[in-house]
Amino acid sequence: MTNKELHHRFCALGKEHRRLVNELLAMLPEIQRLGVFREYKCESVYEYACKFAGLSYGVVQKALWVEEKLAEAPCLREAVKEVGVHKVALFATIANKENDAALADKVKHMSKPALQELSKELRGNVGKKMSVAMDAEMQFLFLKLKRELGIDDDEAALKIILKNFKNPIPGDEKKAPTKAISAEKIPGRYVTVHQKRVAIAKTKGRCAYSNCNKPYDHLHHTTAYAHNRDHKTLIPLCKNHHEFMHNGLVGFQSSKPENWKLVLNTQTNYYDHLYRKARQSA
Helix or strand or coil: residue 235? Predict the structure, then answer.
């Protein structure tokens, strides 16, 4: 077996393993309800799950907790079999009859980091400040820089330090425009370097989504390229908010982020389905 064949075999078995674990977890609430574990001399469903399926106490506890919280969300309960308990658990306390189907669709087609971001936004937990734990050496270096700058305020000092960081940050480069070929004269799907720079400059390399301070990862067409055949609507987004755009979570995709609105039930289009398919097969 070649290295490539070994890798593909390993990945296939891993996928099958995850599928089986998801199915086992989905069966546990019924096993507990019927008391099946007692028939096989187990004190609890936790002991039963560990003995006969090798499942940990923590994952069993989460599966039973999710089942209890999703009493009025059958679509999400069913999604446990397909995507596992961890993704579904992100919405267990905010799911209801009204948003059940929409949330089930999202957990099936979005990555866990993007779902975590969605969960925070639905709960209103966005825009929080970042905290960094400093060891003794980091504290010494930071205090030394503060003294050299003559600034007592930690936040003000750190802001100056970051703004004067010498290495180039994507989106901050100030390069002279090239004279080779005008961006407007290049037809087709290809995005030129100039067009990328223009798009990135709109936000100085930051994700354009409201209250997001992450660096951009993708350039997104707010109007599908197939519709207007140009790149004038390109806008920078981080990975998570790029997934938002292709999963029906932004109600009005104008070129102005201030007009965007988080929704759960916007219809996905043909291009969104292509994106979902490509992401899941990657």
Answer: strand
